[in-house]
Amino acid sequence: MNLPNLKEARKRTNNDIVIKDNEYELTDNQKAIGLNKKYYIKTYGCQMNEHDSENIKAILNEMNFTETDKLEDADLIILNTCAIRENAHNKVFGLLGRIKHLKQTKDVLVGFGGCMAQEEVIVDEIRHKYKWIDFVFGTHNIFDLPNIIEKTYINQKQEIEVFSWEGEVIENLPVKRDNKYKAWVNIMYGCDKFCTYCIVPYTRGKQRSRLPKYIIEEVKDLIKDGYQEVTLLGQNVNAYGKDLNINYTMANLLEDVAKTGIKRIRFVTSHPWDFNDDMIDTISKYENIMPYIHLPIQSGSSKILKLMGRRYTKEEYLTLFNKLKEKIPNVSITTDIIVGFPGETDKDFQDTLDVVAACKYDSAFTFIFSPRIGTPASKMVDNVSLEEKEERLQRLNQLVNKYSKENNDKYLNKVVPVLLEDYSSKKKDCLKGYTDTMKLVNVKADKSYLGKIVNVKITSVKTWSMDGEII
Ligand code: SAH
Ligand code: SF4
Ligand code: F3S
What we know:
Distance between the termini: 60 Å
Helix content: 25-40%
Structural class: alpha/beta
Radius of gyration: 23 Å
Number of strands: 21
Strand order of the largest sheet: 3-2-4-5-6-7
Oligomer: single chain
CATH class of the largest domain: Alpha Beta
Bound molecules: S-adenosyl-L-homocysteine, iron/sulfur cluster, FE3-S4 cluster
CATH topology of the largest domain: pyruvate-formate lyase- activating enzyme
CATH architecture of the largest domain: Alpha-Beta Horseshoe
């Protein structure tokens, strides 16, 4: 048993990133474990988790399990969980209730992974109150799933494998991608920023960049497989390379990925701190780097930003924002905002509204502050009532939506490039896709257009999506 430990997870001592390309291995016995068995996987949280699930699926496929989208049909259920806010926890516990019932009616193995598995309190709860969960695996333990599953079948007792170390980079994991036209590509793992409210540096470990050669190879392979778009993934992509000590930055990486010729390049998430001029120049220089930037501000109050440990003031953020708007033609910028951080006064909240009005974001994800056990902000004095926070969130959302609609309105009757990636879930006889600026468009088109980038004339506009016709 390897239990999570937040104190260990906080440490940043090892300067050398350990890159391993032979850590994941399957024995013949492990390849037979899944024969005639089905797995069901439920993924919560951000793109990192989505992509981890693509690795988990490929591992289970290599063990000869087949996927099912029906919980009730599964012989193996995996939860890939998120710890970012309390409501992410609640969703997971809700599903656990259903799974417990199912387990009383059939033989099914249940595995609990992801960021919640890295939290001491959660694993403690699982050990004492959820003894029927068969195995728990951390974000650093995915490569070891075949061993963990094998051990669980043999020993028939709860297995817990959660490493709380700084983390290493495992290069040889298989991947089964959910989308045929656009792909996630990890460029780095973990985060060293330690914003005071955030659990991610604890659940994902130290910042570890992948070596450029592995990333470029992956993108080239994706091109060969017909992929049109890659999204470079990291909690903090602008800091890419800083830990490698090879004098190679995010700007260099963007340039090298652009030169592979892949049609569309995106990247998330950008922390304002590391967004330098080289990066801006590279983005504006290459047509295949999309004019779309997710630039979380978190708060418009410099006082709150300081308490959050974000390392920039409102003014510095605005300077960067304006530079991006000026240097990258047609750029769309989105953000994340937290309301009700401890100590946020009406005046601080008004600062946030003012910045939103100044930036007129294309869209924004907005959250009420959720104290995460073990983070500094969870111990700060918080004297704003939940009622007040909810009211602030509502006011903020109204303003955010107003600008989303106004920005979208500018697209009416314009012709924009859209990568058609799937059937529309909302409109019959339509495909859906995204513009270069990350606007969702439903387009009247048959399936022969799937996977193609087409010019679309926008015929109607709503707050969260648009409709259009191929021209
Ligand atoms: N690495 C990204 C953010 C990842 S988490 C970045 O730094 O921008 C996604 C978003 O969740 C954050 O931007 C923040 O707005 C929100 N978030 C993180 N911790 C939170 C907490 N404790 N309470 C409320 N929102 C939180
Ligand atoms: Fe969390 Fe801050 Fe790291 Fe983003 S940069 S993952 S908000 S600690
Ligand atoms: Fe959630 Fe972990 Fe992502 S906490 S947001 S799944 S890094």
